[in-house]
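task queued by scheduler; priority normal; single chain, no ligands, no partner chains; default sampling; output format set to structure tokens
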Amino acid sequence: MATKIVARNRKAFHDYEILEKVVAGIELKGTEVKSVRAGRVNLLDSYATYVGGELYVHHMHISPFEQGSIYNHDPYRKRKLLLHRRQIEHLGDETARKHLTIVPLSMFFERQWVKVELGLCRGRKKYDKRQKIAAEESKKRLDALVKGQRRR
């Protein structure tokens, strides 16, 4: 099963603590698929909401197809996510009960289908972000020391 990653939301890994990951399909129009194939997608400020038993992703920017005509789509329109009903209800319950957020982490092709990896996330406070950065830096220093010891 070949997958080609088109876009990643790197900021989400910094701003949120990811509790659970789910892969979902996404409902796109024809010119949107062509833009995604060209890699013209931005997931930076996007999020998903549970409305009326369905999941929608908001603020996902897919640039209009350059060779498209007047029938191009709105770059920021809300797009329906395709999941099993139980998965949708589970994500909706978790967001309502535990005050969590659903954030797109990456977009990729699985064969010819466009998929979105969603993360069920809890927002990090500023001090949590600092602690994470400090832990990563200390790990880098430790790895560099170990690597230096091996070379001797």
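post-processing summary
- Residues 16 and 123 are 4 Å apart (CA to CA).
- The domain at 3-124 is CATH 2.40.280.10 (Small Protein B; Chain: A;).
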